[in-house]
Amino acid sequence: MAIQIKTLEQLKVMRRAGLVVAEIHQAIRAAIKPGMTTSALDAVAAACIKRNGATPNFLNYHGFPATICVSVNEEIVHGIPGDRLINDGDLVSIDCGAIIDGWHGDAAFSVGVGNVDAQDQKLMDVCEESMWRGIAAGKLGARLTDISAAIENYIDSQGKYGILQEYGGHGIGTEMHQEPHVLNFGKGGNGPELIVGMALAIEPMITRGTHKTKVLGDDWTVVSQDKSRGAHFEHSFALLPDGKPFVLTAADGGRAKLASLGIEISSLLS
Question: Which positions does UniProt annotate for a divalent metal cation 1 binding (predicted)?
């Protein structure tokens, strides 16, 4: 399947969807606390989507029964919200998306609740920074696996972490998951050239232990085989007609973080 190339007008709609996702993240960060159920977080996201006149892209996606994915501790991705209580010290990963006028936004983050173990905090920090290193490597004219290599190289420089092999980033546009698949590991210089109009979701997923995972009996929840805790971060970014990137799901378009990595974002969606 070919990579979908977007016009500036289409990317403007994706930015609107991305801002809804950013608002969901902000609302969940403000709400999450020990004693909450994971389904209560799902309700926060659903209300935010409804308030913005958007549509959830996870709900009923291949039968997924909720608005967001909530994954706790050894659950890495695709956790189904329910009656599970969030406890002090838990590491919680939230993945969510929204659709505006047929165009998708998709982003994820992990957060420690209450008193967070220092190694869990480092796990999250490394995962988040690796995502930004991957986005920074996604320059006009680069190759797709330059992103993969930047993510892996940063993670490996910070310690011994498991990088999930079966799951990665993806193209995004009129569908949540499109070509190309973006690995979070590998040698740079391979894959399609990055050109104006591409939109990619970059999402490293790592654990404090092995990269090996298994899917639970609900056919969704992905956990680490060794029960080590995991982290998951994701942002969707695009290459604009001025040749510069813009992070569609970040409130500031990625300006502050990418500036610290020497990357200037596009002004075409500001």
Answer: 95, 106, 234
